[in-house]
């Protein structure tokens, strides 16, 4: 009970003003839905699109998006403090949590290794201080694997747990740390300030990024709601990939940048992180299996073996039935993402 109350307190404290505009709610009452996002910035863009362009409203929802951090995002979904999240729940599922990944956004990681301008190779991280999220956070696990694949002993790097991406980014800019793993938007900002984008983690490892996940209880008790939330979110995702110029405007707002060409470059980087299947919210069995095993091995690498309850099947981790049905229905309706334009309200 205390954990649930704590999770709800965290949600209340972190609620951000991404609510649908008042005029969008109309006379008919809309159902309030809360989605927890693991970070601000790019991960919010599909939700922004679906809010601003009315995709959630069309399905009968008034959606609030709450910015948390990776591990908290999963906790608040499991506790029921929010309805959906994108935190990447595989470690929790391996630990016995009853939840499912409903939709993915990419099948390559979004993290870039950004370093002090004095560092020109991954091997030069030996003896350097690197900001990480926490001991078992996703970006930390990706970083450890990236080091291993480049022949750098993990114990030669001083890893400093600073949590939120914005804190790690600030530590890099201030010179408090020598490197960190961040998404392309902040990586470009750092690059403009003289820092170096040293490596893209997707060149070394694969990783599915959840766009929506929810509890088994939610799937069991509210399957129609789940379908409609997935459908509305998928429209935002499809719009993002197929309408570059308008999607770039959302990127500009989410990342608070003014250069349209820079936003388009960020869009291109994000777009290449998703295969054709990931762009419509799904992944192949091979990729799903590889991703689960990678997370399992990474948990072992950080001494979290005791948290693993046992083997899991793919259908204990993923449920793409909703997103597949949504995509089929969207196609059948001849829905056109090119007819929508960015609308800032």
Question: Could you list some keywords that capture this structure?
Answer:
alpha/beta, five-stranded mixed β-sheet, three-stranded parallel β-sheet, disordered N terminus
Notes on the protein architecture:
With 345 residues, this protein is α/β, with parallel strands linked by helices. It is built from 16 helices and 10 strands. It has helices at residues 2-14, 45-52, 55-58, 70-79, 90-94, 138-149, 165-174, 184-192, 216-221, 223-242, 244-255, 260-271, 276-279, 285-301, 314-317, 321-332; strands at 31-37, 61-67, 84-85, 99-106, 112-115, 129-132, 158-161, 179-182, 196-200, 209-215. A 5-stranded mixed beta sheet has the order 7-6-8-5-9, with helices on both faces. Helix 6 links the parallel strand 6 (129-132) and strand 7 (158-161). Helix 2 packs across helix 10 (223-242) and helix 10 (223-242) packs across helix 16 (321-332). The radius of gyration is 19 Å and the shape is globular. The two termini are 39 Å apart. The model is unreliable at 1-27 (pLDDT under 50).
Residues in helix, %: 40-55%
Q: Helix count?
A: 16
Tell me what portion of residues adopts beta-strand conformation.
Answer: 15-25%
Rg over CA atoms: 19 Å
The major β-sheet equals: 5 strands, mixed
Low-confidence stretches: 1-27
Query: What general outline do the C-alpha atoms trace?
Result: globular
Mean pLDDT reading: 88
**Overall strand count:** 10
